[in-house]
Amino acid sequence: MTSFLLPLIAVTYLHVDGTGVGLVSAVQFVPIVVLSLIAGVMVDRYPPRRALVAASVAQGAALALLGVFQAAKGLTFGQLIVAAVVIGVATVFYEVAYQSTLPRILPVDSIAAANGLHQATYSISTLAGPSAAGFLIGRLGLSPTLTVAAACSAGAAVSGMLLRGVKAPEQPRQSAVRAIGSGLRYTWSLRPIRDLCVQAGLSNLHEKAFLTVFLVFAIRALGMSGTTVGLITGVGSVGALIGSLCANRLAKRWTVGGTVALGAVLAAGGLLLIPVVAHFGAYVAVLASIAMVLNGFGVALFNVFAVSLRQAIPPEHQLGAVTASYRLVALGTLPLGAFIGGALSDALSPGNALWLVGLSYLVVSFWLTWSPLRRARTLEEAEELGRTTGGEAPPVCRSPSA
């Protein structure tokens, strides 16, 4: 809801240009580049409950203050940027803590199923979020919409408080700089993780660039309302829900490595269909929604197994560092993608920018085709592949109750 709401405010309330919209999206992800490695060190040293609760409280406070500013004197672009940065910082610590916790409480053969369940719940919230943001702004106005978003963050904080008994792994104390360096070296020395990093980084760059251009194109070139754009963007989560529920079954019939590579290609193909159907008049909203469903299906396939592979291969004491290092590479491209998308929409026109970004995305989506990761049929085989393709320390077995 928040990631769609903030750029929507920039377009509809503050009337900024494409570059400004891209900037609002970009600054939410700049903290990934700056703070991911620090978040990894903290998650490996302290119980994850602290990070989950603190991050949710910070995000809710930022959204609540935006609502207060809007109700008082009207929101400014500067206030929106500051709030986006705070929300981005909170998201970094939350995601690193969450993704490092799951493999500590589950055996390796249950990780994919758990990530499929998480991706399904995430897909439902992603479907509801943009749609709710567009609907609430249209019916209630900006301040009430921001209040609802802040209340959701408060609910997340309460949920985080319920996570008890999960402790940080025991490991030798070392300086933060040495811990960061060790995590980076270990992550980059593993060929399967490295290939996933590169594919995820390229995919996220193009996804964010495309969605930034599409927001500007749909509202200004096609004359769609914020509610319609939110519905089109959110309906892609129907495909993500289907993909997350089917991912484990597909991997059993095919391979884990093949499924994750297929997901990247399907995600790119779905977005490339949008400029194809953009001139179908009254049917464009329906056809664009179908394209988003295909994109969501591919993204879910990739995410379920990319996260599972990243959690299954490293040893427990390196989980936080690997998660943070991976996210630095994979998600660090998001601010660049958002800025590039906004700049291209101004320089080439939104319609031409859609074609350029979509075609480029399709080309880079084949990166995993040449990776040895495609040979891995199961997570256990991927874990063994990680041992034989590099890594400074051999993976160790994790107890289900760790």
Automatic annotation (TrEMBL):
Cellular location(s): Cell membrane
Statement: the UniProt record of this protein carries the keyword Cell membrane: yes
Transmembrane segments: 20-39, 51-71, 77-97, 209-242, 254-274, 280-307, 319-341, 353-370
Keyword Transport attached: yes
Protein name in the entry: MFS transporter
Membrane association type: Multi-pass membrane protein
Span list, region Disordered: 383-402
Residue ranges constituting the Major facilitator superfamily (MFS) profile domain according to the UniProt record: 1-377
Pfam family name, one: MFS_3
Main location group: membrane
Keyword line: Cell membrane, Membrane, Transmembrane, Transmembrane helix, Transport
